[in-house]
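I am still getting used to backbone structure tokens and would like to learn alongside you. Would you supply a protein for us yourself, any chain you care to pick? Start from the sequence, derive the backbone structure tokens from it, and show both lines together. Go ahead whenever you are ready, and we will take it from there.
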Amino acid sequence: MSKRLQVILDEEEMQAIQEAARLHRTTVAEWVRQALRAARRREPHTEATRKLAAIRLSAAHSFPTADIEQILTEIDKGYTENPAK
């Protein structure tokens, strides 16, 4: 379902938007819809406090690590010692 949105602009803003729409060969309404979609894409999808909580939680864990060369050697060794059937 579509909804109508009314926005009041001063004359100068309206002229600038009309010019932008004309340059993009589109209507003012379509230009505004595209501008609003672009603005929504720039907004974070998750609030910062939730992101920070997730980072803090994951940083609290301790996982085994090793030198990258050692890890790759062990992976290759696993492939050669246990070939897929």
Remarks:
- Residues 7-58 form one domain.
